[in-house]
Structures are given as C-alpha cells and as structure tokens.
Amino acid sequence: MLQFVYSDGGFLADLVEQCAGSLGVIDVFHRTFDGVPFQQFTAAGTQVTATYGASSSGVNFEGHWEPIRHLTFDLTGDWQRDLYTNYSSATSGGASYTGLYLARQPRLS
C-alpha cells in the first residue's frame, strides 16, 4: 500500500490512504512566507537589515520494502523549490533577488 499525504501551510489537508506496514509515504507541500527578517554585517562593519518573502514547494518521500523476512530496503529523501518572492538588496544598488532560489536550501536531498 502507498500512503499519500498533502499538506498546505504546515497543516495536514488530505490523507488518501493509510494502513499499518505501508510501503511508503509521500508528503506534497506548498508554503508561503512574508515578512521574514534578514540581518547582515558587512566587511566594513555596517549592519544591513531587511525583510523578504519566500515560496516553498516540494515533495518528501519515504519508502520501505521487505522482499524476504529480515531483509529490508529503505529510501528517504526530498525535493523542494524555494524562491524569493519579494526581496531587494539595500546594499547592492537595489538589486532584486525576487524569483531567485533561496540561499542554503538544497533542492534534492
């Protein structure tokens, strides 16, 4: 059996099929964030502060297979797409990061 879970905004929205000993779980999500604070200290010692928005969509998956007794294979991972939705730099002449990938967020793990 395969268990499929959809969540939006961090809440469990839909549980399609559930059973003990399932072969796997798939969690599909989309979240938006507004007003995220940002703070940076430059090499000159000045402080830069700003707020930005972000959008995150992705899939988390877990799989389990036991072909024979006492032999199991497990697979886990996730794929996500995280983008800035509203962010302009105050230090680099007002350059816009809107639509670019978030820093330090892996796309596949």
Textual characterization of the structure:
Strand 3 and strand 4 (47-68) form a beta hairpin. The protein has one domain. It has no helices and five strands. With 109 residues, it is an all-beta fold. The protein is elongated and about 60 Å long. 0% of the residues lie in helices and 62% in strands. Strands 2-1-3-4-5 form a five-stranded mixed β-sheet, with no helix packed on it. The chain has strands at residues 2-8, 11-15, 24-41, 47-68, 71-86. The relative contact order is 0.18.
Write a brief structural summary.
This protein has one domain. The chain has no helices and 5 strands.
List its traits.
109 residues, elongated, 0% helix, five-stranded mixed β-sheet, mainly beta
Topology of this protein?
Layout: E1 2-8, E2 11-15, E3 24-41, E4 47-68, E5 71-86
Parallel strand pairs: 1-3
Antiparallel strand pairs: 1-2, 3-4, 4-5
